[in-house]
Every structure is written in structure tokens, then in C-alpha cells.
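Review form for a predicted model. The reviewer records the input and the model, then writes brief findings.
Reviewer: anonymous (R2)
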Amino acid sequence: MTCDRLVCANCAAPVSEGRCPVCRASRERLQQEGLFPGLTPATLIALLVALVAVAVAARGFAL
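Model under review:
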């Protein structure tokens, strides 16, 4: 998630502008967390295996 469209509940300004301490803290936290903050390598591997399984099953049904 990016802070481009988030609006601060404290000052009602876009978080990306960082007008108040709450905005700046939220913007910093979002930048540190990255795209998928809760995604562990094990979860990523499990998702990849599931995607491959679905692709193989779909190809099997198409034949």
C-alpha cells in the first residue's frame, strides 16, 4: 500500500505530504514495511505452489 491516497485522521491532509507528526509516522511506517509486510517466505512459497497446482489442474481440464 502506498500513502498517495491516504488521508490523515489527525489533520485531514494527504499522508504523503506529512503535515503533522501522525502523517510523518504513518508515512515512515508504510515505507519501512514495503508492499507485503506480513508475507513470510514460507507463505510466499505456499502461494507459489498453490498457483502452480491451479495452473496444472486447469491445463488438465483443458485437454
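Findings: The CA atoms of residues 36 and 63 lie 36 Å apart.
Further findings: DSSP finds two helices and no strands in the chain.
Recommendation: see findings above.
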